[in-house]
Amino acid sequence: MVQWLVWRDLAEEARAKILRRAEKDISDLFPLAQEVIQSVKTRGDEAVVAYARRFDCPTFEAGMLRATPDDFKQARARLNPDIIRAIELAHQNILTFHKEQMPEPMWFTEVSKGIMAGEKVTPITSVGLYVPRGKGAFPSVMLMLATPAKVAGVERVVIVTPPTPEGKADDASLVAADIVGLHEVYVVGGMQAVAALAYGTETIPKVAKVIGPGSSYVSAAKRLLFGVFDVGLPAGPSESIILADETANPELAALDLLVEAEHGAESSALLVTHSEGVARAVRDALPHLIAELPEWRRNFVNSVLSNYGGIVLTESLEDSIAFVNDYAPEHLELLVKEPFVVLNQIKNAGEILLGEMTPIPTANYALGLNAILPTGGFARTFSSVSVWDFLKRSGVGYLSRQGYMSLQGAVARLADYEDFPAHAMAIRKRNRILGIPDES
Fold it and tell me: Which residues are 6's β-sheet partners?
């Protein structure tokens, strides 16, 4: 049954549940995560293999830890050529988009006479990409992570991805990595993969950062390893808002409402509209669309639309926009008469898709936008994965003698005021050494 939520009449507790989403408490996984992390830290490959046997593949061996050149070759031979072409097309668009994101490697501006300030942009030296599996394969996630890492020029990109029941990396994910041009792929997932990247093992290298979505087990390991290395963007259960006005096609809105709902029972999928007519038509269209899904996906959708999702009826388009900005969704689709006008009023969303010809699946796979997005309201302060997740900025400054002379008095006085005598001494004694009049 689809939730019907009249926002103005909803009790505060009910509103809070919708805005909070699942926010699954992963603290119960911390003891296991701590055990795995400590074991991998002290025992290296031996522990990684043991956990792979326990969680993924009973016959896993140490020799299976890294994908070989033959694995890449066989994966391409086994994969349907139509899928390969689809991956190639998606990669080209994702590549083009992310190349446009690249900043100038260095810039300067003259702050005032003799004072130059700027930035130098350099790639992170080593990054681990976590590409999940679950019930299926996610070559799209491989593309969304590997492409910007490659464009950014990361010196060493290490990929981890859970093994199939046969102990191999997924064929489509290997082909996607090959198309991007990255081949250091380790067949390991879960908590043990994150721990291996944090500390390094005999086979898997230690990296400076890990990025990529994963299960609650992966999230628990990242939470405990925060501070050991950079654990990247917070990415939890999938979520979407379809924002519709009275002009929206209800059948299309209903179709797109199902997209993120089929990801899992903890996902969130909302139709937000002030049009009761559109809302009722969408609700009427949903049953026959849901019936066409496989049972296990159908179960996800029914759970989501009766729990963290459903239909939110507002009093006006302005109220709908205010709801969106408060919610800060991962995916936002605008099915409104003037999407570019509404776009200017959206403040918080991981991605914003305009009009009925731009449904969420196009952005998830091949539009070019990055589909690894902040969830759980983090779109208020976080952005989608981009080349900037693989780059860092260093401030660069230069003073001529004239520029130094114009600053030294103010700098020494501020150092005195903040009670940093070594700061002030570095200025005043420098003045004497260099023969510069002290203006402090």
Answer: 313
Q: Is the pLDDT of residue 135 over 80?
A: no
* Amino acid identity for residue 4 in this structure: W
215: phi then psi, degrees, rounded to nearest 5: -70, 180
The token pair at 180 is 């991007």
- What does pTM read for this prediction? 0.93
Give the tens place of pLDDT for each residue, 160-175. Answer: 999 999 999 999 999 9
Per-residue pLDDT at 23: 66
At 271-291, the pLDDT tens digits run: 999 999 999 999 999 999 999
Q: What are phi and psi of 399, to 5 degrees?
A: -120, 130
Q: Compute the C-alpha angle 213/217/220, nearest 5°.
A: 90
- Contact criterion met (CB below 8 Å) for 254 and 282: yes
Question: Cα angle at 101 between 97 and 102, to 5 degrees?
Answer: 125
Q: Give 27-102+122-225's CATH code, choosing from 2.60.120.260, 2.40.30.110, 3.40.50.300, 3.40.50.1980.
A: 3.40.50.1980
Please provide the CATH number assigned to the domain covering 236-381: 3.40.50.1980
- Could you give the residue numbers annotated as active site? 330-331
Instruction: Give the whole-angstrom CA distance, residue 1 versus residue 294.
Output: 17
* CB-CB contact of 224 with 33 (8 Å): yes
